[in-house]
Amino acid sequence: MAKTAAKEKDSFGTLTVHHTNPDLQHRGLKGVNIVISFEEGLKLHLALWQALARLSTFNRATKAGKNAAVHLRLFGGTTGGTITVFQGTLVQRARRSRGAGV
């Protein structure tokens, strides 16, 4: 199991992301900062809570239950946008062939 990054002094926690689409590392990006107001944070909290409440009803002993996920989609650019919360699945992404020595 991969070691989770240590919690930073000013963060509220760190979690592992299954994948991003498009692939941020492939594009050379190390991370994306998203800044939201307190009110929008409350909306995000509520949306996540509702999505997780639905996922908690799934049977985690089944493959579908284990692959249930929360999907966050960011729309917009550097001057603003929206985050939408969806129910998603952990799809296994095909490994890319990178050639013989890599």
Describe this structure in words.
The chain has 102 residues and is of the alpha+beta class. It has a domain of 52 residues. It has two helices and two strands. It has a two-stranded antiparallel ribbon. A hairpin with a 2-residue loop joins strand 1 and strand 2. The two termini are 22 Å apart. The N terminus and C terminus are likely disordered.
Strand content bin: 15-25%
Number of helices: 2
Give the overall shape: globular
User: What is the mean pLDDT?
Assistant: 77
How would you sum up this structure in a few lines?
The protein is built from two helices and two strands.
Strand-helix topology:
Blueprint: H1 38-55, H2 63-66, E1 68-77, E2 80-89
Antiparallel strand pairs: 1-2
Relevant terms:
single chain; 102 residues; 2 helices; globular; alpha+beta; 2 strands
